[in-house]
Structure prediction request, 249 residues.
Amino acid sequence: MINVDDVYKTVLLILNKEQRGYMTPDEFNKIGAQVQNEIFEGYFNDINQYLRQPQTEYDYADRSEFVDERISEFKKEAAAVHTSGGVFTLPTDLYRLGSVAYSGGTQEQEIQKVGRREFYNIKNSKLAAPSDMFPIFLQEDNSTDTHTKILVYPTTIIDNVRVQYVKKPGDPTWAYIEDANTGGYIYADTTTGSTVTPTTGKVNFDLHISEKHEVIKRILLYAGVVVQSPVVLQTMTSELAKDEQLDKS
Prediction:
């Protein structure tokens, strides 16, 4: 994780040093969430690209492993909750589903994911019908609920289903208390409650610590728009373009 206070103070320090304006905590929180989501979603495009390229055999230099290490910050395992008729709801923080496993028998086995056409063909097959030893599942979205669901067959499976998945990143939040004397903001490191904005308290960036400099640069890029500074905007655009060219080369 990346400390949200370190990032905000660094951004303010650079803006102040260049005398380019000020970014409020609320502006920082909104921009920070946008930046984190951009970096996070970029991982999946990057790893697909790197897997199509020859990889080095040197330790610490494999780019696909490098990206997968960053995605690992978001990998989780949790139980799927049975509702009825083979329907299981998945965790609310799910972003991408990985493997699904069932451990109701003598050993744990992976539940095979199938498409809708396969699902109905296998389900209705006399020879290849799903069983506790060879279960299948179909993943669907439920428009009437905030959860994603899966349909597991056979419907005799009603528990002991676990999923491995990539979770959504939580929005970073620099929480603060307003100083009644100066009108400034005091960082609320561990405080929550009615005197704190937001009341739920601070939230660090979920990203790998190695992304700290990338986060700062991207926030400064947006800061150039917020404070209407062409210098900050041009500088950060140039820096990020260099980084991207180096990563893709």
Observations:
- The first helix runs from residue 4 to 17.
